[in-house]
Amino acid sequence: MHAIELDPSDATLYANRSLCYLQMTEADKALRDANTCIKLRPEWLKGYYRKGSALMSLKEYKEACDAFEAGLKLDPGNTELEKVFQ
Q: TPR repeat boundaries (predicted)?
């Protein structure tokens, strides 16, 4: 958390914290950080993966599919995203 205070423009920090929140079953916070990650670095797949994972945890399946699909549009051959999308 302190790293984000030092550099709030680093999308990697938000993606990492999003994963931590997911592992702590705090999906709302994970989703918030995933959205921030996407805002800061919209071309990076990791944000879409984190967003989709958080939405799955929240049982928002349609929105999760949309997030995974958005990531696949950036990298159609990404096997990890294809796997979770299906």
A: 45-78
For 9, the 3-state DSSP assignment is coil
Instruction: Count CA atoms closer than 13 A to 44's CA, side-chain side.
Output: 18
Structure tokens at 81: 């995203």
Q: How far apart are CA 6 and CA 49, in angstroms?
A: 25
CATH class of the domain at 2-85: mainly alpha
Task: Decide: 17 and 1 in contact? Cβ < 8 Å.
Answer: yes
Task: Tell me what percent of the residues of the chain surpass a pLDDT of 70.
Answer: 99
Q: Which two tokens stand for residue 54?
A: 């958080």
